Amino acid sequence: MIYLGFNVYNEGLTLYEAISKAKETFRDTEHQIIVLDGAYVDYPYKNNNPKSIDDTLAIAYELADTVIEREEPWEGEIEKRNEFFTFLKDGDYLLEIDGDEVMEGYFTGEFDFRPVFTDKPILTVTYPDYASTWLQRDDYNPAQPYKIFRWFKYQAGMKFAGSHNSLFVNDIFINKGVWDNKFPTMCGVVALHKTKTSPSRNQEKSVYCQRLKEKERNFVAENCK
Q1: What is residue 141's three-state secondary structure?
Q2: Which of 12, 147, 164, 225 is least enclosed, having the fewest CB within 10 Å?
């Protein structure tokens, strides 16, 4: 089973498109859509309400198979991303997507092993069990994608720790030493990061990203060189 996990908070401007396009991309592959709503402790959420206050939840309940909303903020991005793993069993796949990331293309259900060139943004899967997603931003040169861990083949003991992009299996850190010049790829699939939303939303995310960077600085400096 492939699970498409959407990490959201006040994503009403983009979430309908994001989920709809993801369904279209995986239309011939069995999948379920999970939406985790809510702000983090360090995120500047409003009115002491960590839930989305726009139409994010209405969209999620309309389009997703499972929606989780909470009365308290998530302790952090690590806790929230690890929540996705609680839905999976060994061998399941998880594609973790933010609510402002829109998939384009078609997933055939097969992976192809070939060189990855940065002038051809594609969704990639690193061998054997985890992956990087090539995103292109809608306010950047689309020929210059950036890479983040987003695609996972689950196995027991898998979790994020230390930083929100640092993946462990049974306390073994697996991020380092895995990159070479070739990856199994899902060619023709790309995720577009819809960075042009509202000015207030962008400001909130900027504040949060700076706080996150400071919180994870020591772990990243020691382990992610």
Answers
A1: coil
A2: 225
All structural domains of the chain: 2-223 (3.90.550)
- CA 49 from centre of chain: 23
Q: Which two tokens stand for residue 149?
A: 């861990």
CA atoms within 13 A on the CB side of 19: 26
53-79 tens-digit pLDDT? 999 999 999 999 999 999 999 998 899
What number of other Cβ atoms are within 10 A of residue 200's Cβ? 11
Compute the distance between CA of residue 208 and CA of residue 43 in angstroms, rounded to an integer.
5
- Cα distance between residue 95 and residue 49, in whole Å: 28
pLDDT, average across residues 39-47: 80
Determine whether 106 is exposed, middle or buried from the number of CB atoms within 10 Å of its CB (0-12, 13-18, 19+).
middle
Question: From residue 56, how far is each of 6, 14, 184, 187 by CA, in Å?
Answer: 11, 9, 34, 30
